[in-house]
Amino acid sequence: MKKGVNTLVSYGTIIAAAVLLAINYHIFIIENNFAPAGLNGIATMVQYKTGFSISYMSLLINIPLCVLGYFLISRDFALKNLAFTLTYSLSYLYMQGFDLDYFRYDAQGHDTIFPVIISGIISGLVYGVCFKNNASTGGMDIISKYINKVRPDANFFIVTFTLNTVVALVSLFVYTDGNSVSYKPVVLCIAYVFISNFVGNYIIKGTKNAYKFTVITTHPDEITNEITHILKHGATRVSAIGGYTGAEKTVLICVVNKHQLFDFKKII
Fold it and tell me: Torsion angle of alpha carbons 225, 227, 230, 233, nearest 10°?
């Protein structure tokens, strides 16, 4: 029963995140002529050049990737991505029938950094929520997830950022008027990716930062006592013998908060 409720909550969260991303594209991204990177960024550039809706492009790109994800990654991940893709595409298509000019942030070529910041934060929120529910926003995220599966040592967001850089370079030619090269779309794309990745990574890791220390000492009682009473942390004690000298010592393993680094060093 509890598992079924958790599954419904997870899918509900993913669907809500998909709707939020569709709103984000409508209000902050499309009108300001920059690609938000990823395969959705490619879809945005295709719509800019041809008028072909990103909702259809998203379906054409992501449904095959979801099928591949089903076999190469996991069933749960693929189905949740499919739910996100369908909701996002249908929501964006549905919104195209409404007049949203009152809500749109149209910088008209000026101060476009503000919609990039806002849209980047919203996208990062969506990314983080999806990843915490074993899903993603599709496109490059599915590719990065596969790379991360076969290479667990690779940082997920660094892989995504690297793949998205290619899209940023392509946007250099898409959003150029033909008379001169404008690097503004590239800068906006990279800024968007950096902000969204930073926010997404922050949501996944949480607000807690800590450091683990390993201390080899002949004074375990004194150090443990000060760690307990000054830092309000515990410590794990392990008896050890030096491999070269054969001397008996104690290994202390302790985790402290980031703001306690100075106090910990002072204790040592």
Answer: -120
